[in-house]
């Protein structure tokens, strides 16, 4: 703009000069006309001569005028160039400030104005209640001497980078936007001093976090639970001050110390893997429901008992295996029927109490204990029967069932029952009453140990072949006796067997085809025989392992001999 002022002045001067020159030329022409008339020259010739003489003085003036004009223009251009060495070119924006014709100091003043109004709001946990998102305090620029130490340098760099000699082109270009990097500066001691006055940064108001832990057994829920950790309000002040500095460097207006992880947390949280694994395993055990049919009586094993067997010790679940073993032993003692006296009603309608030394249910306590432990650890929900070492044919109070061999030793008569019906009756000869005690056929409830066709029964001085051998108690057994022609009656008083039950071959064959391992065999004597053929003291016959093998009449070869 300064350049055009002198140019206008030059143009005005030249105009005035031209005007004055034109008048002078016109006046001189009239004079020349008069002078040339005396010389006999024509008017046209005289006019041309006068015009040429009038034009000659213009060239020096024009040259001088343009010289002055150029000099003024160059001077103005240089003046403007010098001006823009310390001022920003037109259409220049720095940091959202239109700074054309401004000095660096003026730009910095405008750029720094917002810094003086800077505030940083700091949120976190209430130090007294632990509530999140509470405003702990506000850091204001004047409190911490917040300022920018980089703006002037940045402004100077931008000014130095512009080319002042191209200032005319700046009027024709679009606005140039330049960025400036702020470098905030504050007093660290003032930040610490200011925040230490806030309750959140004061030791006496901070509360420590508490670790998550596993509760005691919850009766109403039948399980253990994880009690979550408490957050507390203990602030890691060093980390908090570091995060505050980061926020001020970034020019942020608000931060949350909890979101930035500035609080000291619990060492063990509710999502702790060890806690979750522990409670998961313990509750799996407690969730077991095992219905066991103890030979006719069903008992439910669930949390009511398991709560006393499942505990958590040193952060690990513990299953009291000894208590499970005691539980199994107690149930076996209560429900096992093996070896216990049994009530049996004979075919003649007399109810007897018979020993059951070799028949009934007998729990394998060790195996059953291990099986229960395995099922509990799996969290099983099943119905089952216990692991029995010895089994009977039926469950319940009458574990004999309705298929059995009934040997009436007093009347020397045998009944074969199948599904509650008598399918065979036959006389027999049992052990000799008047011989040694081990030759007396024992009374009680037994079962067939095995059966074999074509066995050799060996004694001290004989070896006798039988077709059908069915031992039920040691060497006592059922077998055919081809050497006898008569069966039943009172033969057994003086001429009985060595303890076995001798049968007619046909009857032995039929029984052999029906019975199998475990088939019940009931042997008894009447104290008061319904047929009035009482045998004194017969029911007290010895049950020691005697029989054919031990007495010399019958021992199977080779297996029976081993018994």
Assembly level: single chain
Number of helices: 17
Mean pLDDT: 83
- How many runs of DSSP E, i.e. beta strands? 28
Q: pLDDT under 50 segments (min length 5)?
A: 1-5, 23-42, 534-545, 549-563
Q: How big is the Rg? A: 63 Å
Proportion of β residues? 15-25%
What is the terminal-to-terminal distance? 136 Å
Q: What is the helical fraction, as a range of percent?
A: 25-40%
Secondary structure class reads alpha+beta
Structural account:
The protein has 563 residues and is of the alpha+beta class. Helices cover 35% and strands 21% of the residues. It is built from 17 helices and 28 strands. It has a five-stranded mixed beta sheet with strand order 22-21-20-28-23, covered by helices on one side. Helix 14 links the parallel strand 26 and strand 27. Helix 4 packs across helix 6 (151-161). The radius of gyration is 63 Å and the shape is rod-shaped. The chain starts with a helix and ends with a helix. Mean pLDDT is 83; it is low at 1-5, 23-42, 534-545 and 549-563.
Features of the shown structure:
563 residues, alpha+beta, five-stranded mixed β-sheet, four-stranded mixed β-sheet, 28 strands, 35% helix, disordered N terminus, disordered C terminus
In short:
This protein has 563 residues and is of the alpha+beta class.
Walk me through the topology:
Layout: H1 4-37, H2 43-55, H3 58-83, E1 92-94, E2 97-98, H4 104-112, E3 119-124, E4 134-140, H5 141-144, E5 147-148, H6 151-161, H7 167-170, E6 176-178, E7 184-185, H8 188-196, E8 213-214, E9 226-227, H9 237-250, E10 254-256, H10 273-286, E11 289-294, E12 297-301, H11 303-309, E13 310-313, E14 316-319, H12 321-335, E15 342-345, E16 351-354, E17 362-363, H13 365-377, E18 381-384, E19 388-390, E20 404-408, E21 413-418, E22 421-427, E23 444-447, E24 452-458, E25 463-473, E26 476-480, H14 491-495, E27 501-503, H15 505-514, E28 520-524, H16 547-551, H17 559-562
Parallel strand pairs: 1-6, 3-10, 11-18, 20-28, 26-27
Antiparallel strand pairs: 1-2, 3-4, 5-7, 8-9, 11-12, 13-14, 15-16, 17-19, 20-21, 21-22, 23-28, 24-25, 25-26
Helix pairs in contact: 1-2, 1-3, 4-6, 12-13
